[in-house]
Amino acid sequence: MTALSKYQRLEASALWRDSISGQRRDVIVSLGDASLVITDKNERPLTHWSLAAVQRVNPGAMPAVFHPDGDPDETLELGESETEMVEAIEKLRQVIERRRPKPGRLRIISFLTILTFFAALMVFWMPGAVRDYTLRVLPDVTEQEIGNGLLQELERFTGRACTSSLSTRALDQLSNRLFDRPVSIAILREGVESVRALPGNVIVVSHTLVEDYDTPDVLAGYLLQLNLDNEPRDMLQQMLETAGFMPTFRLLTTGQLPQATLADFAKGLLNNPAAVPEDTLLITAFYEQGVAITPYALARDITGQDTAHLLSAEITRPSSARPVLNDTLWVGLQGICGG
User: Fold this and answer.
1) Does 156 lie in the same domain as 91?
2) Total structural domains in the chain?
3) CATH code, domain with 33
4) Phi-psi region of 171 (alpha: psi -120 to 50; beta: other; left: phi over 0)
5) Sign of the CA dihedral 28, 31, 37, 43?
6) Considering the domain boundaries, does residue 156 fall inside one?
7) For residues 289 and 179, what is the distance between their CA atoms, to the nearest angstrom?
8) Distance (Å, rounded) from C-alpha 240 to C-alpha 159?
9) How far, in Å, CA of 323 to CA of 292, rounded?
């Protein structure tokens, strides 16, 4: 101990009492190896106190009175002439106290570390974990409710979806013709550039795809662009990421999203086209469903330059295309929005 070496030769006269009923005796006090050594005038050892256990009865007052920790009846009194020894004892007590382990401080540091760890979990890990879990366990019926909710919010900007008795039959037949699952198709007057797949197998379609073309193959081609296995789920994941933790947690626990979440996300879908898959995937879908490719390819690019690969695939197709809708249903569908 560096501080101790400074006072190794220091001695002082003091009064020592071994108990509350004992008489005070003149003694010599010296600093030993991390201890106070108390001897009589003939230098016979009487006792020694560990510096780590020395307590002062009257801090700042003189004469200074000390006792060993846990035994206040045994005292050592140093007078005003022994201020150097008093200062040495106080200095060494301060050094020892600073080096003493602080259980309370350790507990506080441990608590703050644990609190920081859990706060980091809540901020960085928990939202993603809750979102991923919600996507895994979300029932199909809830996804459909979300898709219908988005459609209702879209209709606030686009107007009500077009409908008629004949067009309903046409859309049902078109759905059965192209998809391996029940799909709800809504024709909107505006706000949709071509087609979008919403959660729950809800598809919104621009009215131009039924009003501006002579054949239902164009509409069928745009519908075949959609990947119903991935796009609606990707959209739902994007919606939850945008909404944040609390709406996601509400969806997990109640099966409902806040209306504001649906409204904000629906606004972002306006005139935001879906991604077009690679030509190879599209051609495979056209072949499997027996849909003519040329009308769709020319609808995307009237010159045919950007869709040359699709047009050439029509020539080399392994089997002939089949009608998507009969003329009666197609004519009825073309008039769905009164066009």
Assistant:
1) no
2) 3
3) 2.30.29.30
4) alpha
5) negative
6) yes
7) 9
8) 26
9) 8
111 in a domain, yes or no? yes
The answer to whether residues 110 and 213 belong to one domain is no
* Contact between 129 and 121 (Cβ < 8 Å): no
Tell me: do 246 and 321 sit in the same domain.
Answer: yes
Task: Report the distance separating Cα 302 and Cα 216, nearest Å.
Answer: 17
57: tokens are 């009865």
Q: 204 and 270, same structural domain? A: yes
Let me know if residue 339 belongs to a domain. no
The sign of the dihedral angle between the CA atoms of 34, 39, 44, 48 is negative
Beta-carbon count within 10 A of 178 CB = 22
CA distance 227 to 178: 12
User: Would you say residue 30 has pLDDT above 50?
Assistant: yes
Q: Are strands 195-198 and 35-39 parallel, antiparallel or unpaired?
A: unpaired
Give the domain extent around 108. Answer: 102-137
pLDDT digits (tens, 9 = 90+) for 33-76: 678 888 888 888 888 888 888 888 998 889 999 998 888 899 99
- Tell whether 106 and 54 lie within a shared domain: no
Stated pTM of the model: 0.66
12 pairs with which residues across the strands? 29
Half-sphere exposure of 127 (CA within 13 A, CB side): 13
Give residue 242's Cα distance to chain centre. 12
In a domain, 41, yes or no: yes
Per-position b or e across 272-296, b if 16+ CB within 10 A of its CB: eebeeeebeebbebbeebbbbbbbb
pLDDT tier at 1 (50, 70, 90 boundaries)? very low
